[in-house]
Design goal:
binds adenosine monophosphate, about 350 residues, nine-stranded mixed β-sheet, single chain, five-stranded mixed β-sheet, alpha/beta
């Protein structure tokens, strides 16, 4: 059955056929289906490649504790972004990573050709404990395992990449993916964390110099720039290379900086925040997926993209790990975005 989305693709094929004087009816149904699906993926979205950790996490919050559960920056990004656009994933896992988790991602349109499985090694492990405010946390343990010697290989089928999302990972691994792209993607977005600032600042600054958008949280922005004011911090970071800086402030929303402009997206006030792990990655997933889906990487469209990122992050924190992201559907997302519009919508008349 052809839905309205397919129907647009069908009309495009019909137009093209008429230009070369070919009757569209001479193609079989199967051929048309394949052409339609290719058009959907290649022309109606910008191709998105995601790089980052896939992990086991153990999390402690003031409200509970999880056993070893599925986590990792690229895992959260993929679960979120695949609501809007196909994703091509680059990562590495050990033989202990459940096949069912990989299958669940594949079923959502996440291509895993670039995910290496090291059968005899262990998956990256991270453990963290949140403070009472749920905005700050201590890392209790980081076991790099498969990440220690990870050398990503960009598959040929990923070379059409238009938006590259570098999720949190060893900075030299992030830059090696950029180097492997034959054509520079139209937009390179990078996330990172204090861990890399503490142990490899030079590598990190080199990778930052290669990207267009840097995503960090407020304390990371201060650590990276040496400035307390977030406005000054963003300016200093933009001098390092990125044209856009996004500073995430947990329950206080996110700021998007570009040249002398700044835009603010709030976080949805929630009655209960269960587990903030992965909220930043989910935010990043919503941000890049919106740009990919709308094929528009302008500053104006980035403003909408950070609203969508905030809306998606608000789901992530409602349950431990990726669980909530695996449950939501298009209707839930629509309703949540509508709540955001209500949150910031006001008329003002100056007297
Ligand atoms: P977020 O809460 O958005 O900062 O991301 C949390 C996720 O980042 C967790 O699922 C961890 O597995 C992952 N993570 C934590 N530390 C690192 C690290 N050093 N490198 C890569 N991923 C990490």
């Amino acid at each position: 059955m052809i839905n309205s989305f397919d129907f647009v693709s069908f009309l495009v094929i019909k137009q093209l056929c008429s230009l070369i004087h070919v009757n569209v009816d001479c193609f079989g149904k199967d051929v048309l289906k394949i052409v339609v699906s290719q058009l959907k993926i290649k022309n109606l979205n910008m191709s998105l490649v995601v790089v980052g950790s896939m992990a086991f996490d153990a999390i402690e919050t003031p409200f509970g504790k999880s056993d070893k559960i599925i986590g990792g920056a690229a895992t959260y990004i993929a679960w979120c972004a695949s609501n809007f656009t196909p994703v091509k994933q680059i990562s590495v896992v050990g033989g202990d990573f459940p096949q069912a988790e990989l299958d669940a991602l594949t079923a959502r349109g996440v291509v895993l050709e670039g995910v290496q499985i090291k059968k005899d090694e262990k998956t990256f492990f991270w453990s963290g404990k949140y403070h009472l405010d749920m905005n700050t946390r201590d890392t209790l343990d980081t076991q790099l395992n498969v990440l220690e010697n990870f050398q990503p290989v960009v598959p040929e089928s990923y070379q059409d990449c238009e938006i590259l999302m570098l999720g949190n990972l060893v900075p030299s691994v992030q830059s090696s993916v950029i180097k492997q792209m034959r054509n520079r993607p139209k937009l390179i977005v990078m996330d990172t964390m204090n861990f890399w600032m503490e142990i490899m600042m030079d590598d990190l600054k080199h990778t930052i110099s290669l990207v267009d958008v840097l995503l960090v949280n407020d304390s990371e922005a201060r650590q990276l720039s040496g400035e307390y004011s977030l406005v000054k911090a963003a300016k200093k970071i933009m001098e390092m290379g990125p044209k856009y800086v996004i500073i995430k402030k947990g329950e206080h929303g996110a700021l998007l900086f570009h040249e002398n402009e700044v835009f603010f997206a709030p976080a949805l006030p929630l009655e209960e925040v269960f587990d903030p792990t992965g909220a930043g990655d989910t935010f990043a997933g919503g941000f890049v997926a919106h740009l990919a889906k709308t094929k528009d990487i302008s500053f104006e469209n980035m403003k909408t993209a950070i609203i969508l990122g905030s809306a998606m992050a608000s789901f992530c924190v409602e349950k431990f790990g990726t669980q909530r992201l695996t449950e939501i559907n298009a209707e839930d997302i629509k309703a949540r975005v509508a709540s955001f519009v209500q949150l910031v919508n006001f008329d003002i008349e100056l007297v």
